[in-house]
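Moderator note: this is an archived Q&A kept for reference. The question asked for a predicted structure of one protein chain; the sequence and the answer are reproduced below.
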Amino acid sequence: YTKLEKLTAWAQARGKSMADLAHAWLLAKPAVSSVISGVTSVAQVEANVRSGEWSLSSDELAEVNEVLSA
């Protein structure tokens, strides 16, 4: 839970949600060509599209990976 709390705070400091961070992090992986997310509403589809528009910088990716590896 500590990692989750740190990542949630990290994303929120950038005006993003954990779902945004999850999509951006996955899309930053060269081996990942697409991210498939289950949705139950049009609002979730729209949110997922916005999430996909966030490209993590190399510094941001390093920060997230550091939290995940701790």
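Archived answer notes: The mean pLDDT is 93.
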